[in-house]
Each structure stands twice: as structure tokens, then as C-alpha cells.
Fold:
Amino acid sequence: MNVLVVGGAGYIGSHVALEFMDRGHQVTVFDNLSSGTKENLFENGKFVLGDICNPDDLKSLFATEKFDGVIHLAAIKHVGLSMTNPQLYSTNNITGTLNLLNAMCEAKVDNFVFSSSASIFGEPQYLPIDEHHPKDPQSYYGFTKLEIERFLGWYDKLKGIKYASLRYFNASGYDTKGRVTGLETITTNLLPVVMEVAVGKRDHLDVYGDDYDTPDGSCIRDYIHVTDLADAHVTSMEKLLADKSSMCFNMGTANGMSVLEMLKLSREITGCEIPAKIVSRRPGDPSNLVASSENITKILGWKPQFSDVKTIIESTWNVYNI
Structure:
């Protein structure tokens, strides 16, 4: 198939583009390079510079060739910033996505894989979190993701766009073959920050709170290897093309690890001290987010292959320790 990967020069997007190409599909990456990097583009894919916030860019893009499907990974994703600058998230995440969907309608492209988020659920009422869990986002970022899922439901009913919404828990790790080497330009997720401390780019790691209702007081998260996520994108798009039926999946491993546990294991694997200090909680951070992946396993046969924490940390360290 011929797919468009929007945000395909970014951290997750580059792994998704690579997975599609590995499996013999044609890929066009569309990216404004605000957080992505040309280092993450591959010779056997096409690249178009543009922005989802500019409808003219999208109109020109869809006029050039016919795509079988679109993968959308061009959101701004930082929870803390969304609480202080919601207008930025409204413009990019919501308006930008609607621009993309409208351009797809005009071009009669009707298969869409959306990068959603575990943040749509808020503080869990039970664990592991399945697809039926109540949705109560605690951050504006999570709100934008949930609103887009609602828009997708209407675009399915009214315009026939079939979608797969993949609700990421904590995407982490790097391509185990070392082919993706572009580092994230804006780092707020735990593991990239840990690695920046390990290589001396930062003085220390801030641990946001040690008084959560967890065994060691730090937040617990479900870490999933980015290559496993990329596999889910390809498999979801193939399923959409075959069945023409929309889907929502939680993307995790059902295994949680706390911030302090991740820090301890990172120190062991890297051999670095990685100084850390406890600071105040961040607004919008639930204490424990762990996903059930039973639904995607049942429907798509998807299972994580690289998401043990040791592989996640080692593959990340291999990129940072160059």
C-alpha cells in the first residue's frame, strides 16, 4: 500500500515509517520538522515539508498522489505545557487534525490510524486499563486526544473514514538494529531525560513526586517499545483496508514500572550515576497507568516483542551513548 505518515520525522513517526517500509509498503513522510529531524528520514521513502495547521499545504500534498491510508502522529504531546498553554494544543492538535481529516475527505482517502494516548483515561478506576474504562482526562493534552477520538466517530458515520485509534501508554526504546538515531529535540518523557543526565547533557533528573499511592511513592507507567508500537500501526492499517471497520486499542504490556525502579535499572545498565532529586508533582499526572492489551491481541494477533524493560533501556542507551 501507499501510506502517508504525518509526523514521520519524529521519534515515534520515524519508527512507524521504517516498519511500513520494512514490510514492503510505500511511504511518504509529511512533517514540519518542529520536533522531528531529517536524520530520521530514510532514502527509500519520500518527504514533504509542510504543516497540518496550513490547509494549503495539505491540499497540495493530497493533489500529488493517491494514498491508501494516513497515519497521524503530528500532535504536540507534553502534558505539563498543555496545562499552561492550551491554545497551542487547541490549534495544533485539534484544528490541525480537523484540517487533515477535511483534506482526506476532499481526496477521498478513508483509512486513518490515529496516535491517541492513555491520558484520555485520567486517574484509573481499575487496573489494568481496558478500552471500556471511563474516560476522564486530567490534562488538556489528554482532552485534545479524547476530543479527536470523538470527531473520528462522527467522520466515520458521516464521511466513511474508518479509523484505528491507538492509545499509547509510554512509548520508549529505539530500533534494536540501530537504524533510527535522531534524538528527540524536546524531551519530557522519563527515559530520554534519564539518558540526557547519563551523558552529561543535564545535571540531574527531576522525579515529580514521591508521595503517590504506589509502593515507592513514584508514578507507575506501562512502557512499550516503539518498534512494537510501529508494528501495531502497520497491522491496524492492514486490518482497516481489509475489513473497513473502525477500532480503538489500548497499547501497553499490562506491566508497570515506577519512576524510581526505572531510574535504578537505568543506572545499572548504563553504569552511570544519574543524579536525581524529588520535586513537586506535575499537574495532570495520574499515579498509575497500566494497560490491558487483550483486545488488540484478540482482534489483530498483536503481541509486544521488544517491550521488556531491559531491551527498552539498552536500545535507548545505544543511541544516546554514541
Remarks:
- The chain has ten helices and 13 strands.
- The mean pLDDT is 95.
- The CA atoms of residues 51 and 143 lie 22 Å apart.
